[in-house]
Please model this.
Amino acid sequence: MSMLEAVRVTRNFGGLCAVNAVSFAVEQGEIFGLIGPNGAGKTTLFNLVTGLTEVSDGVVNFQGARLSGLKPHQIAAKGIARTFQNIRLFANLSALENVMISQHIHTRANVFDSILGTPRMRREEKMVREKAMSLLELVGLADRADDQARNFSYGDQRRLEIARALALEPTMLLLDEPGAGMNTNEKAALSDFIRQIRQQFDLTILLIEHHVPLVMGLCDRIAVLHFGQLIALGVPQDVQRDPAVIEAYLGDT
Model:
């Protein structure tokens, strides 16, 4: 059974078909890349998987269970976390608070516990804080735990967003252009980091990325979208040689 399966997934916006009958499967433990020109439907497909956008037709399955029709928080609770192309941090909160907030789906303290400051609430708060600090250390931001997110550089905000996604304790992580705004050396370090967290957290990873060398060197398999349609699917070497991919995308990069 595949970890994630899209079966003829379609999304229409009025007269525009943003994603057109796309089918693919992501196997457990894979790093699976999704590439294509701007406007190809990549982020829309991410939104369909994570419930931010409703599927017009087709179905998305995760570990054999249907995701289509579920709300984003329900999908997150099933073990899917994501980052965004346009970073969505709580700008006025600290890095530590941003990561702590993401753990709320795993806490058990209720309003009664919070009002009375019960031992359960205090234990959970301590555990949440310690875990958030360990994730900030993992992404190299522990020394800035108390800094507001809005004061971070673009690259550091990307790392903070990954830490926040990992706080959800996902089994599958969706990364939307994680290398955006990074130089060549930073992208090489990002590749190593993605491999590290896959192994450390036993993750399956689906990512969108425009930097072709990063995708080709990092991903086990790649799907290519063009005008909402899947035009190629396979290992990087085969995708890179596909004439349709060269014409639609690689020839312009």
Notes: The chain is about 40% helix and 25% strand. The chain has a mean pLDDT of 90. Residues 4 and 65 are 9 Å apart (CA to CA).
